[in-house]
Amino acid sequence: MADLDSGTLFSVQGLVAVITGGGTGIGLMIAQALEANGAIVYILGRRQEVLEKAANTAKHRNIYYLQTDVTSKSDLSAAVDHIASKSGYVNLVVANSGITGPTLKGLEKGASLAEFRNHLWNWDMSDFTQTFALNTTAAFFTVVAFLELLDKGNKAGNVEQKSQVICISSAGAFNRVPMAGYAYAGSKAAAVHIMKALATTLVPYDIRSNVLAPGLYPSEMTAGMLTQDKWPRDFIPEQRAGDIKDMAGALLFLTSRAGAYINGNVLVTDGGRLSILPATY
């Protein structure tokens, strides 16, 4: 029963993957997990020094970086052309780039309605819109940019599972308490719906679309929160933040033969946090 061996079932050997925002945080965890298990990984991001440092962590020297602004169509097209010239196809695209946007930080608990209104009114509309531009719009156009290379990945037949796009959304997309702010929660929720719609519309092209929704994981966004090792059970039932092993397990499942039957789904990895919050999931 070699097909049931975990090394075969969860293998990503030879998989060609593209990860936006792959230089830090969750994107880097994903890149390291895939590359350590035999995948060829391209990471995209704006900061070259961060990308270079990330690429140097590769276990097999198979993390390659491209300085790319994913809110720019010309940058995305250039990335597609470069990867096409190097690998010829891709099997996986992970749209991970994101920002927090305006937050509720500084608003005291029990604030009056006037204080609440003023805090929200003082947000810059352009900052609110920019959050959607990166978390939602750029994620969509990242997927669109790579569709033809994903199709070529299916035709290459280098892995058994069909080509796939995965959007890194957030447990915050389902949390009715907008801890990271309304723009962040709304943009991540919008991305979830778009990916579900793509799962339907990409069926004729044999390209799958799924969503991974992390809870509290180490990243530049959560740096100010991760000051403690253990969390109360009524905040996170698992009483800890997620780590690279949690992220690797989720991604290796979704991207290997083990997850080949998954399409149009949302996988939440949050230590049970949505179970104790008013949530829509």
CATH topology assignment: Rossmann fold
What is the helical fraction, as a range of percent? 25-40%
The average pLDDT score comes to: 95
From the spread of the alpha carbons, the general shape counts as globular
CATH superfamily grouping: NAD(P)-binding Rossmann-like Domain
Can you describe what's shown?
Keywords: NADP, Oxidoreductase. One of its GO terms (molecular function) is oxidoreductase activity. InterPro entries: NAD(P)-bd_dom_sf, Sc_DH/Rdtase_CS, SDR_fam, Sec_Metab_Biosynth_SDR. This protein has 281 residues and is α/β, with parallel strands linked by helices. It has one domain (2-276): 3-Layer(aba) Sandwich (Rossmann fold). The chain has nine helices and seven strands; from the N terminus they run αβαβαβαβαααβαβαβ. It has helices at 6-9, 25-36, 48-55, 73-86, 113-121, 125-145, 147-156, 182-201, 244-255, and strands at residues 16-20, 40-45, 63-67, 92-95, 164-168, 208-214, 266-269. Strands 3-2-1-4-5-6-7 form a seven-stranded parallel beta sheet, with helices on both faces. The chain is globular.
